[in-house]
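Z., the sequence and structure:
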Amino acid sequence: MSRPGPLAGIKVVEFAGIGPGPFCGMLLADMGAEVTLLERAGGTFASQLFGGGRKAVANRGKKSLCIDLKNPEAKALVMQLIGEADVLIEGFRPGVMERLGFGPDTCLELNPRLIYGRMTGWGQSGPLAARAGHDANYAALAGVLDTGRRHGGAPWAPPTLIGDMGGGGLMLAWGIACALIETGRSGQGQVIDAAMCEGAAVLAHGLFNLEALGEWQGKCAIDSSAPFYDVYACADGQWISVCPLEPQFYQTFIKRLGLSEDPDFAGQQYDTTRWPVMKQRLAVIFASSPRAHWEQLFDDTDDCVWPVLSMQDAPMHPHNQARQAFVDIAGVRQPAPAPRFSRTPGSIQSPPPLLGEHTQQRLMDLGLSSEEIARLVALGAVSVA
């Protein structure tokens, strides 16, 4: 029997959305929280983009209650759920929840201990609060997207990771965890205003640090301008990541490549005027053999040389397999819950639900009879799978 996660007993009401909100709910569910997902008939743009039902990884471990938030018959049910919840997650634009009748003032009056998590791109206030945006927009305005450029190239970054997931969903989950601790002491709830733009900036705190020191773009060891912190193409078209940043790792790195006495490399690690020549030569060297050759050459060293794996290959790497870092749920390969706990580990409680799969169960939990549920279905207030 699996042990309960660290958030076991915490009840969460999540209003269905896209991206960071569902990711935040997934993180809480992975850690044992009971997450009731309020979905609307027909699904959302997220279900169209990422696939609904069992393929919606962000909904794993949640219970789906399909409900029409605009139906007068549904409002009392939602308020009942909120009344017994510890956490609420919503990702609408500012003002939408208020117009629906579920604004923070209303909900906190009903449930003073409620932690009301709001997820937006720009925050609940400010000149951009009501404007639309996406991950790259938030990262761009935070000054972070620009740091994702290869030296001298166009700025870009892995999709959804900086603004949506890291700066958004992860920051909101962190805020909720903090608020749960504080509520345990004070007995009072509060509103969390999580803005993806601001969260993206926090993630980049170290880069702002380097910028303040004047060590960025062309003079920085980690912005892709340094030859010893980059990726290189191999003879078979695969890629290798090369990061011997520390001097002791750099020395053994060039030794393995037979470059210890080479004037282009010996004693030149942080001579930025030499970096272009060093990079050109390393590119030729790595292009001379397939990736497997370089993996074998550096397999027993601390030189920080590792293969660039695809999403298909990553789960098959021996280290990831030994750690069981990826799991198969309902036929979908996906990352396992993280981080790991020694005593109350997280776990995937169930596969992603079908739309409305738990409508009947959740309404019966609220004390509704089968006849009352059938009447609500007939009125279009709720739907069942």
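The longest helix spans residues 161-186. The CA atoms of residues 89 and 117 lie 5 Å apart.

Let me know what you think.
H.
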